[in-house]
């Protein structure tokens, strides 16, 4: 069996999980169980047989891909990202994506097909997995090689298949996964974070940490060069600071966003929560080829400006003081 066939067949593990998840979804609306023990056993056996029949049907459908694997080349403009997509736009600006795009360009297209399903009107397609390959082909104006899923594919099955495929290739960031987990929970695909974790085969702790990253206020997320830089440990510290003094943390975030040069992720977190920053290398500046001064942050997060004696005369310092006051007043507006 070809590699894509193996991966498609492997998704039956996800589809099995989806059956279990759908069972959990329907628990609230089920008719009351029989009161007698024999009746309950009979009802449980009937439900189990129904699930096994559904799973077997899905496996048979996947086996139909073995050997034949019907692939088609589709105009990428006719394919839409799924609403469960767990790739942030900045993921398409990374060196890893640039390498993928270059390899696809050299090959004249994607050698590894993506998986799509038809939209309800049948006029377009929706990605099940392969968002990065689709994006590369779209930017290169190349048709994308795809396997079109034959038949219905519920959102739950799509979500599980996409999550498995992405984690087997290149793990999305905590922020990206958190956004996807929240979307699945909001849509009611899973009744709780714990059931979601069980269905996709990760720890409940990881789901909690990823969603914590995704739930950070936009004002905090925007202080980072990209949300992909935010780690779960950052989110936990930031959320604790927000709980204690939200107004102060958001004011610090505004100051960070105004910086022309963003600090490292660790330094950003330190500034937002008001603790000692990581040791920073002094930034020096020269005038006329001669060192004029520099600045750095001390262990309390304060900016310390140092000027060389030959530029720090009284007249210059008076002008500098006036300029700083005017600049600081702008921060208040």
TrEMBL record:
Any single biological process term in GO: chromosome segregation
Limits of the ParB-like N-terminal domain: 72-167
GO MF annotation, one: DNA binding
GO cellular component: chromosome
SUPFAM superfamilies recorded: KorB DNA-binding domain-like, ParB/Sulfiredoxin
Family: Belongs to the ParB family.
Name under which the protein is recorded: ParB/RepB/Spo0J family partition protein
